[in-house]
Amino acid sequence: AKKDGRRRARTFDPSMLQVLEQRELLRRSLRVALQHGEFFIEYQPLVDRSLAITGFEALLRWRHPILGAISPVAFIPMAEADGLMSEIGQWVLEEACRQALTWPAHYTVAVNLSPAEFLTPGLTDRVSHTLDTVGLPAERLELEITETVLLERTINNLDALNTLNVLGIQISLDDFGTEYSSLSYLKNFPFDNIKVDKYFINDLPDDQKSQTIVRFVIAMAHGLGMRVTAEGVETAEQASWLQAEGCDRLQGYFLSPPLRAELIDEFIHRSLL
Ligand code: C2E
Ligand code: CA
Ligand code: CA
Ligand code: CA
Hints:
Blueprint: H1 14-33, E1 39-48, E2 53-64, E3 68-70, H2 72-81, H3 85-100, E4 108-112, H4 115-119, H5 123-134, E5 141-146, H6 154-167, E6 170-176, H7 183-188, E7 193-196, H8 198-201, H9 208-223, E8 227-230, H10 236-244, E9 249-250, E10 259-260, H11 264-271
Parallel strand pairs: 2-4, 4-5, 5-6, 6-7, 7-8, 8-9
Antiparallel strand pairs: 1-2, 1-9, 1-10, 2-3
Helix pairs in contact: 3-5, 5-6
The chain binds ligand C2E and calcium ion (CA) (3 copies).
The site of one calcium ion has 4 residues, from β6.
């Protein structure tokens, strides 16, 4: 389907049909994936400036029986579009909170909230009910939201975030700087933590522009009483630059890739040696 080089309009392209069929297959599979137990969670450590573990971020995984591992970047938007993400997200929340109970008592667990989940009515009741049921103190839960969710329904968003905040849950602004960034979010919403996107970390420590931006974000966040987490830290050089600049937490392959739950005990043990 590719040899002749140029693409003509209205020409039937069999590879396109395959893509559509695959999407349809995925979509149908997604509807039953939860009942079939095909989801699991991996946990990626976050560390403080002295590289001590502060907790883990829960990252959803889907292993399709035939297609194998499918990236959350591919299936989460699909689940959102089909209205499945609230149910899946609730499963993630409960599962992640249960896991956190098996960790040292000062570790937190961070759970991602997709826009659809965040905008579902009753979110705060659902979260606080889950914490009660599982028995996890609110202080040990961190919720990560991206700027996209703040674009809509500002008053309700503010209410929801304030309620979560009052419960003692920590709120993180994920992927900071990559979406519809607006500093007004930082003024209006009660974030505890800003996660600087990997995009700004990638070219550290050499790239001047990245340096300037990251320094600025750290200074601004600290001035606002928020902490900063750098995402996607892949090298020792990036880590030491960030430590020296006062970045509060680091996350990335340099420290550890996301781990299956069974491997966490060993990881914690090794990190304490
Ligand atoms: P995210 O929340 O920004 O998560 C960070 C992503 O970067 C993860 O990809 C993680 O595996 C990856 N990562 C971590 N360290 C490094 C690094 O050093 N280098 C590189 N190149 N990548 C690194 P993952 O697990 O594929 O998740 C992708 C996105 O899917 C997440 O981005 C998040 O937006 C979404 N997601 C994952 N799990 C959930 C979930 O339970 N609920 C919701 N709503 N979204 C989720
Ligand atoms: Ca995240
Ligand atoms: Ca992120
Ligand atoms: Ca991201």
